[in-house]
Design brief:
Helix content is 32%, strand content 24%. The longest helix has 22 residues. The chain starts with 8 loop residues before the first strand and ends in a 7-residue tail after the last helix.
Length: 200
């Protein structure tokens, strides 16, 4: 049974400081409880289906963990973000060479950023997705190498963070800025409202 003693308390099944910042921005109290699952894409899995599946699996795994550990029960929020170019999933770079290839493939063109979110409240897991189109400026090899040298691309889907230095490389977006950061605020608020947690 859900604990309602703190009306806006949830678990965040993520180590992402950006997701933590966005939750704090909308006044949600949260306990960080990361969920580690196998993030390998399935054969021919589309990027939007991929992020929805991972978000749901993370939320469910985290919920089962807190039950097993007899922890206070609050809704669990999980999210997963990936970048897609020509239908190819670009996750977090394995190394600097991988980051270079990713950034080169997005240079001077549009790509998509998909963020799937899930809220688990027991056996029920509700999901939503945010898809944003992003146009990146034409990047020279020197610009890409300089950006990689800052260390910012590490641990970021598609090898860039729009809220950081890469913001200067993005010409425009069509969709959710917070979704590109890793947690679409509108969709998150909608899912949380279904558990009785309202922002306003």
């Amino acid at each position: 049974m859900l604990n309602n003693s703190h009306s806006k308390t949830i678990y965040l099944a993520s180590r992402s400081p950006r997701r933590a910042e966005l939750l704090a921005q909308i006044g949600i109290d949260f306990i960080v409880l990361p969920s580690d699952i196998d993030e390998t894409p399935k054969l021919d899995e589309h990027s939007d289906a991929y992020v929805l599946r991972l978000a749901a699996e993370k939320a469910q795994a985290c919920y089962e963990h807190l039950i097993a550990q007899s922890m206070p029960v609050y809704p669990v929020l999980a999210a997963d973000t990936t970048v897609s170019v020509d239908g190819k999933i670009l996750g977090k770079p394995q190394d600097d060479d991988d980051a270079f290839q990713m950034l080169s493939s997005m240079s001077g063109r549009w790509h998509e950023v998909h963020t799937g979110i899930a809220v688990a409240t027991g056996e029920r897991v509700n999901v939503a997705i945010s898809t944003t189109k992003v146009e990146m400026a034409q990047l020279s090899d020197a610009m890409i190498l300089a950006y990689i040298a800052t260390g910012e691309p590490r641990d970021k889907a598609g090898s860039y963070g729009i809220q950081g230095l890469a913001g200067a490389l993005i010409k425009r977006i069509e969709g959710s800025y917070s979704g590109v950061m890793g947690l679409p605020i509108y969709e998150t608020a909608q899912l949380l409202s279904q558990t009785g947690i309202r922002i306003l």
